[in-house]
Write the structure tokens for this entry.
Amino acid sequence: MNLGQNPHPITLNKFHMEVAVIGAGVSGLATARALKSSGHRIVVFEKLNQLGGTWSFDPRVESDPLGLDPTREIVHGSLYKSLCTNLPRQLMGFSDYPFPESKNGSSGDNFPGHEEVLKFLNDFAAEFGLVELIRFDCEVVRVERVDSRNDVWLIESICSNQKSEEIFDAVVVCNGHHTQPRVATLPGIEKWPGKQMHSHNYRVPEPFEDQIVVVIGEGPSALDISRDICDVAREVHLSSRSPNVKVSKLVSGNNMWQHSKIDYVNENGEVAFQDGALVQADIILHCTGYNYSFPFLKTDGIVNMEHNRVGPLYKHIFPPKLAPNLSFVGLPYQTVVFLLIDLQAKWVTHILSGSGLLPSKEEMVAEVKEHYRQMEAKGIPQHHTHCLHLKFEYLDWLVNQVGLEGVSERVKISSSSYFKFAADNGLWKAKDWKPGNDIEESLSVD
Ligand code: FAD
């Protein structure tokens, strides 16, 4: 869309705003840094006592191992102790603040452990003076626009057990989306006598000693956790919903099998797969992803969550009716996450600072509808609304908005090479990837 020809763009009353940022993970830090550098006054609300969000490993698990009981005390983090990144370090930096290079150059070292990522984020926060902007132990419990004409936003928070209400000009929601488990629906599960848990509550392999475990999922967590537990478990059976998967023994472990989708489970403890195999299992481990959740957000139905689609959102960020004073950073997945977040944060800052203009509300609504229409035409399910399928169009669009042409070319070279290697060799082997494997393959991922 050519904004220069837009007759009714959204404009702002003031360029230096009081902005509330919710969360001090990657999204909150990148947003705080971008807003700060444009002269906005920011408060970052962080419910934990340290920054880093997902990357601050929390050994605690929840009382309900499936993470569904609404009365449970929620643990934000989902990292397991052995976790190394599933993207190489070349793809774990921001546009102008790269992730440190490998010290020993081995392929394993290309995928840093979570401690190194947390250190990177702490260094980033220290370098840009962000720590002093963060209110730790401060949970936001309500976000509501209280004056629609003047765009006045109320933030209610509980900081060290003290409730307070404050007014801001704008709110950027950066609360993450890897905390509310989504579980598989399994016929017969009500009477199945075994134990179930979600990867959100997986930390270490020891509790799986001598157990027969069925792991549902085909993403990096399912593969990583299967590998983690196969040294202690008696058997590990991976269940995938991809079509045409047949039962097979996996070379990566002598006690691991790949199966198709689960057909049903029985009260005698059996798990029946669509490939015909029957397994007497002790534990079913759901590595089946997460749902978006914004329990604090009161928008009178303007922003909805239906089938895990947060919408309507223009470019995954701005709800047209509340833009630009309410925005979301960090929703898309299956992408180069840190770069994406950095670019989104910079674009939100551009808009809030008046350096960029949004189209009119009607045009934004029309664009969102067109996005949904195209998804439907391609048969893409609604719950994939924020999935970028490792494609670059959206990153390119953001790069263009914030005037950082060139950034994406450098990242595309590494990501194209890595994603192609992973696709050709399977996720099991992806961590054998080394930079520079096939530079000439660059720029051709989509
Ligand atoms: P988060 O990291 O979740 O941070 C959100 C912050 O908001 C938290 O600190 C939380 O405490 C705070 N918060 C939430 N609600 C409130 C509230 N009401 N009030 C105040 N504060 C609040 N990405 C990669 O790039 N590479 C990887 O290898 C990779 N591996 C991953 C492995 C796992 C197991 C998981 C779960 C995710 C992985 N990711 C990976 C994705 C990861 O989520 C992102 O890298 C990144 O952490 C997202 O940052 P975020 O700030 O959006 O969310």
